[in-house]
Amino acid sequence: LSILPLCHSFGFLVSLIALFGAAMLVMFSSFNATDVLEAIEYYGVKNFVGVPVMYQMLINSPDFTERDLSSLEVASSGSAALPPELAKKWEKVVGFKVGQGFGLTETSPITHVAAKWMPEIRSESIGVPIIDTDAKIVNPDTLKELKSGEIGELLIKGLILHLLRELPDVHIIFPRLLEALLYSLYI
Hints:
Layout lengths: L8 H12 L12 H11 L3 E4 L1 H9 L13 E4 L6 H11 L4 E5 L6 E4 L14 E2 L3 E6 L14 E6 H7 L4 H4 L1 H10 L3
Parallel strand pairs: 1-2, 2-3
Antiparallel strand pairs: 3-4, 4-5, 6-7
């Protein structure tokens, strides 16, 4: 099911993954909860990837508990934290947790995943770094690594960040990106 904008790296990647896996791709030009729930039932959609506001609209739709959503095997959320109350409502009706993740367009775009098959990861977690990606939480002033549960800044190191560092004018075009690249040297 492709409901995320294809002009954004998140929507583009999700659609490419489906095509790469030779899956049927049900495309939408805009989001409507009733239409999406109907499509899940009609086409037997197995994977649903959305953003928290889409989950909110699906759960608030009168069709949410009326449609047969048993074909769904995976549900993922990104772009912002999925509120715990939405995650619980989804799990109660659909029967499994929504996996969350984290990423940036500049990281191509996923850095972390918390998938359905990772039961030890809390539902509010962004999960674990993907292959060839390292991350840590640091004190933003000292860049010293913090202990589990402490609040700090997320530093990410991965292949795409090293490739971007080679671009000569990246610091002029993307000042915050340069800061992220410099931080990545510390990991």
